[in-house]
Amino acid sequence: MNLFGLNGEIALVTGAGSGIGQRLALGLAEAGAEVACFDLPGSQGLTLTVEKIAVLGRRAIKYEGDVTKAEELHDATVKLERDLGPLSIAINCAGIANAAPAESMPLEQWQRMLDVNLTGVFLSCQAEANLMLPRKRGSIINIASMSGSIVNRGILQAHYNSSKAAVMHLTKSLAMEWSNRGIRVNSISPGYTLTPMNLRPEVAEQRKVFERDTPLGRMATVDELVGPAIFLASQASSFCTGLDLIVDGGFVCW
Ligand code: NAP
Protein backbone atom coordinates (compact mmCIF):
# COMPACT_ATOMS: atom_id res chain seq x y z
CA MET A 1 0.00 0.00 0.00
CA ASN A 2 2.96 2.37 0.42
CA LEU A 3 2.99 2.57 -3.36
CA PHE A 4 -0.24 4.57 -3.13
CA GLY A 5 0.53 6.40 0.13
CA LEU A 6 0.73 10.20 0.20
CA ASN A 7 2.14 10.71 3.68
CA GLY A 8 4.24 13.88 3.80
CA GLU A 9 2.91 15.23 0.52
CA ILE A 10 1.44 18.73 0.21
CA ALA A 11 -1.43 18.97 -2.28
CA LEU A 12 -3.47 21.74 -3.86
CA VAL A 13 -6.96 21.10 -5.21
CA THR A 14 -8.83 23.77 -7.19
CA GLY A 15 -12.62 23.57 -7.27
CA ALA A 16 -12.37 21.96 -3.82
CA GLY A 17 -15.65 23.45 -2.61
CA SER A 18 -17.98 21.15 -4.54
CA GLY A 19 -18.48 17.87 -6.35
CA ILE A 20 -15.44 16.02 -7.66
CA GLY A 21 -12.89 18.51 -6.32
CA GLN A 22 -14.32 18.34 -2.81
CA ARG A 23 -14.20 14.54 -2.81
CA LEU A 24 -10.69 14.43 -4.28
CA ALA A 25 -9.38 16.86 -1.65
CA LEU A 26 -10.76 14.56 1.02
CA GLY A 27 -9.41 11.50 -0.80
CA LEU A 28 -5.87 12.90 -0.93
CA ALA A 29 -6.08 13.54 2.82
CA GLU A 30 -7.34 9.98 3.40
CA ALA A 31 -4.20 8.79 1.59
CA GLY A 32 -2.02 10.90 3.89
CA ALA A 33 -1.57 14.32 2.22
CA GLU A 34 -2.02 17.77 3.74
CA VAL A 35 -4.35 19.70 1.44
CA ALA A 36 -4.70 23.32 0.31
CA CYS A 37 -8.29 23.75 -0.85
CA PHE A 38 -8.96 26.50 -3.44
CA ASP A 39 -12.31 27.76 -4.71
CA LEU A 40 -14.19 30.97 -5.48
CA PRO A 41 -14.53 33.54 -2.67
CA GLY A 42 -17.48 32.87 -0.39
CA SER A 43 -17.72 29.16 -1.24
CA GLN A 44 -19.51 27.50 1.69
CA GLY A 45 -18.51 24.10 0.42
CA LEU A 46 -14.86 25.05 0.80
CA THR A 47 -15.25 25.48 4.56
CA LEU A 48 -16.95 22.09 4.72
CA THR A 49 -14.11 20.43 2.80
CA VAL A 50 -11.54 21.80 5.24
CA GLU A 51 -13.62 20.72 8.23
CA LYS A 52 -14.00 17.18 6.86
CA ILE A 53 -10.24 16.89 6.34
CA ALA A 54 -9.55 18.18 9.84
CA VAL A 55 -11.70 15.34 11.22
CA LEU A 56 -9.22 12.93 9.61
CA GLY A 57 -6.42 14.56 11.60
CA ARG A 58 -4.80 16.04 8.48
CA ARG A 59 -3.98 19.69 7.94
CA ALA A 60 -6.16 21.51 5.45
CA ILE A 61 -6.41 25.24 4.74
CA LYS A 62 -8.80 27.07 2.45
CA TYR A 63 -7.67 29.65 -0.07
CA GLU A 64 -10.16 31.75 -1.99
CA GLY A 65 -9.66 33.00 -5.52
CA ASP A 66 -10.55 32.70 -9.17
CA VAL A 67 -8.58 30.37 -11.46
CA THR A 68 -8.88 32.88 -14.29
CA LYS A 69 -6.79 35.37 -12.29
CA ALA A 70 -3.08 34.60 -12.31
CA GLU A 71 -2.30 36.87 -9.39
CA GLU A 72 -4.88 35.15 -7.16
CA LEU A 73 -3.40 31.74 -7.96
CA HIS A 74 0.10 33.08 -7.35
CA ASP A 75 -0.91 34.53 -3.97
CA ALA A 76 -2.58 31.27 -2.94
CA THR A 77 0.39 29.11 -3.90
CA VAL A 78 2.85 31.38 -2.09
CA LYS A 79 0.65 31.30 1.03
CA LEU A 80 0.11 27.55 0.93
CA GLU A 81 3.87 26.90 0.86
CA ARG A 82 4.28 29.21 3.84
CA ASP A 83 1.39 27.54 5.71
CA LEU A 84 1.78 23.87 4.77
CA GLY A 85 5.16 23.29 3.06
CA PRO A 86 6.50 22.46 -0.42
CA LEU A 87 3.77 21.72 -2.95
CA SER A 88 4.16 18.28 -4.55
CA ILE A 89 0.67 17.37 -5.85
CA ALA A 90 -1.93 19.51 -7.64
CA ILE A 91 -5.37 18.59 -8.92
CA ASN A 92 -6.95 21.22 -11.16
CA CYS A 93 -10.66 20.55 -10.93
CA ALA A 94 -12.35 23.98 -11.05
CA GLY A 95 -14.68 24.13 -14.01
CA ILE A 96 -18.08 25.19 -15.30
CA ALA A 97 -20.66 23.70 -17.65
CA ASN A 98 -23.71 25.01 -19.48
CA ALA A 99 -25.41 24.51 -22.80
CA ALA A 100 -26.53 26.52 -25.83
CA PRO A 101 -26.92 25.91 -29.58
CA ALA A 102 -23.64 26.73 -31.33
CA GLU A 103 -25.29 28.88 -34.00
CA SER A 104 -26.68 31.33 -31.46
CA MET A 105 -24.21 31.05 -28.60
CA PRO A 106 -23.12 34.52 -27.50
CA LEU A 107 -19.39 35.13 -27.77
CA GLU A 108 -19.31 35.94 -24.03
CA GLN A 109 -20.63 32.45 -23.19
CA TRP A 110 -18.04 30.78 -25.43
CA GLN A 111 -15.25 32.96 -24.06
CA ARG A 112 -16.19 32.45 -20.39
CA MET A 113 -16.11 28.66 -20.86
CA LEU A 114 -12.62 28.79 -22.33
CA ASP A 115 -11.48 31.30 -19.70
CA VAL A 116 -12.45 29.04 -16.78
CA ASN A 117 -12.04 25.52 -18.18
CA LEU A 118 -8.93 26.01 -20.30
CA THR A 119 -7.10 29.21 -19.33
CA GLY A 120 -7.91 28.51 -15.67
CA VAL A 121 -6.21 25.12 -15.93
CA PHE A 122 -3.23 26.62 -17.77
CA LEU A 123 -2.77 29.36 -15.16
CA SER A 124 -3.11 26.80 -12.36
CA CYS A 125 -0.46 24.55 -13.92
CA GLN A 126 1.80 27.56 -14.40
CA ALA A 127 1.54 28.66 -10.76
CA GLU A 128 2.02 25.10 -9.48
CA ALA A 129 4.95 24.28 -11.79
CA ASN A 130 6.76 27.48 -10.86
CA LEU A 131 6.98 26.08 -7.33
CA MET A 132 7.65 22.46 -8.31
CA LEU A 133 10.20 22.93 -11.11
CA PRO A 134 13.05 24.32 -8.97
CA ARG A 135 12.71 21.25 -6.73
CA LYS A 136 12.27 18.92 -9.74
CA ARG A 137 9.43 17.08 -8.03
CA GLY A 138 5.69 17.08 -8.52
CA SER A 139 2.57 15.50 -9.98
CA ILE A 140 -0.10 17.65 -11.63
CA ILE A 141 -3.49 16.20 -12.51
CA ASN A 142 -5.94 18.12 -14.68
CA ILE A 143 -9.61 17.17 -14.65
CA ALA A 144 -10.71 17.04 -18.28
CA SER A 145 -13.77 15.04 -19.37
CA MET A 146 -14.79 12.24 -21.69
CA SER A 147 -16.45 15.16 -23.54
CA GLY A 148 -12.94 16.00 -24.73
CA SER A 149 -12.95 12.72 -26.69
CA ILE A 150 -16.62 12.26 -27.60
CA VAL A 151 -19.65 14.47 -28.19
CA ASN A 152 -22.42 13.94 -25.63
CA ARG A 153 -25.53 13.04 -27.59
CA GLY A 154 -28.31 15.59 -27.05
CA ILE A 155 -26.25 18.15 -25.12
CA LEU A 156 -25.44 21.35 -26.99
CA GLN A 157 -22.10 22.26 -25.49
CA ALA A 158 -19.59 22.84 -28.29
CA HIS A 159 -17.73 25.28 -26.03
CA TYR A 160 -17.46 22.79 -23.12
CA ASN A 161 -16.41 19.89 -25.36
CA SER A 162 -13.78 22.07 -27.04
CA SER A 163 -12.43 23.29 -23.70
CA LYS A 164 -11.99 19.72 -22.46
CA ALA A 165 -10.30 18.50 -25.65
CA ALA A 166 -7.91 21.42 -25.21
CA VAL A 167 -7.25 20.50 -21.56
CA MET A 168 -6.23 17.01 -22.66
CA HIS A 169 -3.76 18.38 -25.21
CA LEU A 170 -2.53 21.09 -22.85
CA THR A 171 -1.80 18.27 -20.38
CA LYS A 172 0.24 16.35 -22.94
CA SER A 173 2.08 19.51 -24.01
CA LEU A 174 3.05 20.44 -20.44
CA ALA A 175 3.98 16.82 -19.70
CA MET A 176 6.47 16.97 -22.57
CA GLU A 177 7.85 20.40 -21.60
CA TRP A 178 8.52 19.25 -18.05
CA SER A 179 9.27 15.54 -18.60
CA ASN A 180 13.00 15.93 -17.92
CA ARG A 181 12.46 18.33 -15.02
CA GLY A 182 10.78 16.05 -12.49
CA ILE A 183 7.16 17.06 -13.05
CA ARG A 184 4.57 14.58 -14.29
CA VAL A 185 1.37 15.99 -15.82
CA ASN A 186 -1.65 13.76 -16.46
CA SER A 187 -5.39 14.20 -16.87
CA ILE A 188 -8.44 12.34 -15.66
CA SER A 189 -11.49 12.32 -17.92
CA PRO A 190 -14.59 11.47 -15.92
CA GLY A 191 -17.74 10.19 -17.56
CA TYR A 192 -21.18 11.11 -16.23
CA THR A 193 -20.71 11.72 -12.51
CA LEU A 194 -23.27 12.56 -9.83
CA THR A 195 -22.33 16.11 -8.77
CA PRO A 196 -24.12 19.48 -8.57
CA MET A 197 -23.00 20.07 -12.18
CA ASN A 198 -25.40 17.32 -13.24
CA LEU A 199 -28.26 18.82 -11.25
CA ARG A 200 -28.42 21.65 -13.79
CA PRO A 201 -32.00 22.01 -15.13
CA GLU A 202 -30.92 21.38 -18.72
CA VAL A 203 -29.45 18.03 -17.71
CA ALA A 204 -32.40 16.76 -15.62
CA GLU A 205 -34.04 14.83 -18.44
CA GLN A 206 -30.70 13.50 -19.55
CA ARG A 207 -29.81 11.63 -16.39
CA LYS A 208 -31.81 8.51 -17.29
CA VAL A 209 -30.21 8.57 -20.71
CA PHE A 210 -26.77 8.86 -19.11
CA GLU A 211 -27.48 5.72 -17.08
CA ARG A 212 -28.86 3.83 -20.08
CA ASP A 213 -25.94 4.77 -22.33
CA THR A 214 -23.18 3.97 -19.87
CA PRO A 215 -22.08 0.33 -20.23
CA LEU A 216 -21.85 -0.09 -16.44
CA GLY A 217 -25.51 1.02 -16.30
CA ARG A 218 -25.19 3.99 -13.94
CA MET A 219 -23.45 7.30 -13.36
CA ALA A 220 -20.22 7.43 -11.34
CA THR A 221 -20.19 8.52 -7.73
CA VAL A 222 -17.51 11.02 -6.78
CA ASP A 223 -15.97 8.29 -4.59
CA GLU A 224 -15.05 6.40 -7.75
CA LEU A 225 -12.68 9.15 -8.89
CA VAL A 226 -10.57 8.97 -5.73
CA GLY A 227 -8.66 5.83 -6.73
CA PRO A 228 -7.63 7.16 -10.16
CA ALA A 229 -6.53 10.45 -8.56
CA ILE A 230 -4.45 8.74 -5.87
CA PHE A 231 -2.90 6.53 -8.55
CA LEU A 232 -1.79 9.54 -10.61
CA ALA A 233 -0.69 11.53 -7.55
CA SER A 234 1.41 8.73 -6.05
CA GLN A 235 4.50 6.72 -6.87
CA ALA A 236 2.17 4.03 -8.24
CA SER A 237 2.14 6.01 -11.50
CA SER A 238 5.82 7.03 -11.53
CA PHE A 239 6.21 6.13 -15.25
CA CYS A 240 2.96 7.82 -16.35
CA THR A 241 3.07 11.29 -17.86
CA GLY A 242 0.93 12.81 -20.61
CA LEU A 243 -1.72 10.18 -19.89
CA ASP A 244 -5.47 10.84 -20.12
CA LEU A 245 -7.11 8.37 -17.75
CA ILE A 246 -10.74 7.93 -18.84
CA VAL A 247 -13.02 6.97 -15.93
CA ASP A 248 -16.36 6.60 -17.68
CA GLY A 249 -17.91 3.20 -16.94
CA GLY A 250 -16.97 2.17 -20.48
CA PHE A 251 -18.89 4.99 -22.21
CA VAL A 252 -16.36 5.82 -24.92
CA CYS A 253 -16.20 2.17 -26.03
CA TRP A 254 -19.69 2.41 -27.54
P1 NAP B 1 -19.03 21.41 -9.46
O1 NAP B 1 -19.68 20.60 -8.40
O2 NAP B 1 -19.75 22.57 -10.04
O3 NAP B 1 -17.60 21.89 -8.91
C1 NAP B 1 -16.81 22.80 -9.60
C2 NAP B 1 -16.20 23.77 -8.60
O4 NAP B 1 -15.33 24.69 -9.31
C3 NAP B 1 -17.26 24.61 -7.89
O5 NAP B 1 -16.98 24.70 -6.51
C4 NAP B 1 -17.12 25.95 -8.58
O6 NAP B 1 -17.55 27.04 -7.80
C5 NAP B 1 -15.63 25.99 -8.83
N1 NAP B 1 -15.29 27.03 -9.80
C6 NAP B 1 -15.98 27.40 -10.89
N2 NAP B 1 -15.38 28.42 -11.51
C7 NAP B 1 -14.28 28.71 -10.78
C8 NAP B 1 -13.26 29.68 -10.90
N3 NAP B 1 -13.25 30.58 -11.90
N4 NAP B 1 -12.27 29.71 -9.98
C9 NAP B 1 -12.29 28.85 -8.93
N5 NAP B 1 -13.21 27.89 -8.77
C10 NAP B 1 -14.21 27.84 -9.68
O7 NAP B 1 -18.64 20.49 -10.71
P2 NAP B 1 -18.08 18.98 -10.78
O8 NAP B 1 -19.12 18.18 -11.45
O9 NAP B 1 -17.50 18.53 -9.51
O10 NAP B 1 -16.92 19.20 -11.85
C11 NAP B 1 -15.58 19.32 -11.49
C12 NAP B 1 -14.72 19.14 -12.74
O11 NAP B 1 -14.98 17.86 -13.30
C13 NAP B 1 -15.03 20.16 -13.82
O12 NAP B 1 -13.84 20.55 -14.46
C14 NAP B 1 -15.92 19.39 -14.78
O13 NAP B 1 -15.87 19.89 -16.08
C15 NAP B 1 -15.31 18.01 -14.66
N6 NAP B 1 -16.21 16.92 -15.07
C16 NAP B 1 -17.40 16.72 -14.43
C17 NAP B 1 -18.23 15.69 -14.86
C18 NAP B 1 -19.53 15.39 -14.20
O14 NAP B 1 -20.30 14.54 -14.73
N7 NAP B 1 -19.86 16.00 -13.06
C19 NAP B 1 -17.85 14.88 -15.94
C20 NAP B 1 -16.64 15.13 -16.55
C21 NAP B 1 -15.83 16.15 -16.11
P3 NAP B 1 -19.11 27.50 -7.93
O15 NAP B 1 -19.93 26.32 -7.52
O16 NAP B 1 -19.20 28.66 -6.99
O17 NAP B 1 -19.29 27.87 -9.37
Notes on the protein architecture:
This protein is an alpha/beta fold. The protein has one domain: NAD(P)-binding Rossmann-like Domain (Rossmann fold), CATH 3.40.50. It contains seven helices and seven strands; from the N terminus they run βαβαβαβαβαβααβ. Strand 1 (10-14), helix 1 (19-30) and strand 2 (34-39) form a beta-alpha-beta unit. Helix 1 (19-30) packs across helix 7 (226-233) and helix 4 runs parallel beside helix 5 (158-177). The structure holds NADP nicotinamide-adenine-dinucleotide phosphate. NADP nicotinamide-adenine-dinucleotide phosphate binds at residues 14-15, 17-21, 39-40, 43, 45, 66-68, 93-97, 116, 120, 143, 145, 190, 192-193, 195-198.
The tally of structural domains comes to: 1
Largest sheet: 7 strands, parallel
Query: Helical residue percent?
Result: 25-40%
Cα-atom Rg, whole angstroms?
17 Å
Kindly estimate the percentage of residues that lie in beta strands according to DSSP: 5-15%
Instruction: Give the CATH topology.
Output: Rossmann fold
Could you state the CATH homologous superfamily?
NAD(P)-binding Rossmann-like Domain
Quote the average pLDDT. 96
Distance between the first and last residues' Cα: 34 Å
What structural class do you assign from the helix and strand content?
alpha/beta
Bound molecules: NADP nicotinamide-adenine-dinucleotide phosphate
